[in-house]
């Protein structure tokens, strides 16, 4: 055996990584991605870590800046005992559940309609994406004009069926509904596009076989289409939960968290505590607790998504 011969039982593939890349190519890939990873760390990981450190300390503001003192969990204790935080948590969770459920149902219906179109599908998709592409602050301002009690179109329309024009943004229930309508109008197209991407990947022979077996449209949807869309729906739900739980701009523009604090989400509460009350430690504790809740929700969604993928592989 020469000096360059391979030992018995070993091949050149044994020196490669499990993904199939040799060590040198892997190092080159890391070098190319290092700048991007550094930027991500600076704009995401560092602020998160800084906020966590701030949440465990008492922040003293001065003309020369701020300093950290008295390391403890007092900020978290104050936040968890605050009724305002609990009210904001209830609103955020309820809003997330209702908005994601409504958008998921409407998104599936819109995707089913688009999937059956041919020539006009591209134009309709472009029109549907206009609300999603619009900046949320601008769309929220437009909806504030619509819901205005003095000259709003929605108030005028509802006033045709009542004695007086209703103050839509003046009661907790109607203000919640107004925020929900504005959010559904904006983000339903996003869900519809994701669901449509899943629909076009389904093999048409499956539907042909179901039709030959005598399956009707309703039965085909529940027994074939919906099960095959579980992975796509899980992705849509994951994205929408992340976005809905961190809602800030719609309540900020439409209701300012009112009436009272009935429509104040956790993100708006953290902003007010930190930048209006100048209580940096408590505001950071609100932000950190919100991030922890979102992280746990993502873990649950990913676990459910992984379980669905495993069931499909078994089948």
Automatic annotation (TrEMBL):
Domain ABC transmembrane type-1: 89-301
Keywords: Cell membrane, Membrane, Transmembrane, Transmembrane helix, Transport
Main location per the UniProt record: membrane
SUPFAM superfamilies reported in the protein's UniProt record: MetI-like
InterPro entries given in the database record: MetI-like, MetI-like_sf
Chain spans, region Disordered: 1-24
Membrane-spanning intervals of the chain: 29-56, 88-114, 126-146, 228-248, 282-305
Ranges of compositional bias, category Low complexity: 7-19
Gene3D superfamilies assigned to the protein according to its UniProt record, in alphabetical order: MetI-like
Mode of membrane association: Multi-pass membrane protein
Cellular localisation: Cell membrane
Cross-referenced PROSITE patterns: ABC_TM1
Similarity annotation: Belongs to the binding-protein-dependent transport system permease family.
This protein's name: Sugar ABC transporter permease
Lineage: Bacteria, Bacillati, Actinomycetota, Actinomycetes, Kitasatosporales
């Amino acid at each position: 055996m020469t000096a360059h011969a391979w030992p018995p039982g070993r091949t050149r593939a044994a020196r490669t990584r499990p993904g199939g890349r040799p060590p040198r190519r892997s190092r080159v890939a890391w070098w190319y991605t290092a700048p991007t990873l550094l930027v991500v760390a600076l704009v995401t990981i560092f602020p998160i870590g800084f906020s966590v450190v701030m949440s465990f300390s008492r922040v003293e503001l001065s003309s020369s800046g701020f300093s950290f003192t008295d390391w403890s969990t007092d900020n978290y204790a104050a936040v968890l005992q605050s009724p305002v935080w609990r009210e904001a948590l209830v609103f955020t969770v309820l809003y997330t559940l209702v908005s994601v459920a409504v958008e998921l149902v409407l998104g599936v219906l819109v995707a089913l309609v688009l999937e059956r179109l041919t020539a006009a599908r591209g134009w309709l998709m472009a029109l549907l994406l206009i609300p999603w592409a619009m900046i949320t602050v601008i769309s929220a301002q437009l909806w504030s004009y619509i819901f205005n009690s003095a000259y709003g179109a929605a108030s005028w329309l509802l006033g045709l069926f009542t004695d007086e024009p209703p103050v839509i943004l003046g009661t907790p229930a109607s203000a919640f509904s107004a925020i929900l309508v504005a959010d559904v109008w904006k983000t339903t197209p996003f869900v519809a596009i994701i669901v449509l991407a899943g629909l076009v990947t389904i093999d048409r022979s499956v539907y042909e076989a179901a039709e030959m077996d005598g399956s009707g449209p309703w039965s085909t949807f529940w027994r074939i289409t919906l099960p095959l869309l579980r992975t796509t729906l899980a992705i849509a739900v994951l994205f929408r939960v992340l976005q809905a739980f961190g809602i800030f701009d719609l309540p900020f523009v439409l209701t300012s968290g009112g009436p009272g604090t009935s429509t104040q989400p956790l993100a708006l509460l953290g902003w007010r505590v930190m930048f209006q009350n100048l209580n940096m430690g408590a505001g950071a504790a609100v932000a950190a607790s919100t991030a922890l809740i979102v992280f746990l929700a993502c873990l649950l969604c990913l676990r459910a998504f992984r379980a669905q993928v495993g069931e499909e592989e078994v089948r």
